Backbone:
């Protein structure tokens, strides 16, 4: 079990002014910020990041949304990070997310769901390295 995960604060949450509150919550829940940057994905880069979803009906919408505005990308560290962070953010669909979770509090819809959280240790490492060089992951 790895102690790191990867997250993005998505364009909806950035535009709605929730970035500060989300980062504050992440830190208060005991995650250490290993690396963090604000950036904007091109459609090409967003397509590459979400390549696993290429065959899904929502792929085009997902790519266009994720390249529609500024995001924050970060690598986080905590014991059992992947599972612990997924519990903190709640279900993919905010309508089904538990009370108090980040998506329940800040997400707009299933597609515009405020934050990303890696779904496995393997993907956490791949996704973190998509945004950060080895030198930045200390
Ligand atoms: P995330 O877990 O960050 O990565 C895949 C994303 O696809 C997911 O968040 C949702 O934002 C999005 N997604 C999943 N299912 C749907 C859907 N049915 N329609 C639109 N977007 C979706």
Residues:
């Amino acid at each position: 079990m790895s102690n790191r995960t990867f997250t993005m604060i998505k364009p909806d949450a950035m535009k709605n002014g929730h970035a500060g509150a989300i980062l504050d919550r992440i830190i208060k829940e005991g995650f250490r910020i290993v690396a963090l940057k604000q950036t904007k994905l091109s459609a090409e880069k967003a397509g590459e990041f979400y390549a696993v979803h290429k065959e899904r009906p929502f792929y085009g919408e997902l790519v266009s949304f994720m390249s529609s505005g500024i995001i924050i990308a970060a690598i986080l560290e905590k014991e059992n990070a992947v599972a612990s962070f997924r519990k903190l953010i709640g279900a993919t669909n905010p309508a089904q997310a538990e009370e108090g979770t980040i998506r329940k509090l800040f997400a707009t819809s299933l597609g515009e769901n405020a934050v990303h959280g890696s779904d496995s240790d393997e993907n956490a490492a791949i996704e973190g390295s998509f945004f950060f060089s080895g030198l930045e992951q200390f």
Summary: The mean pLDDT is 97.
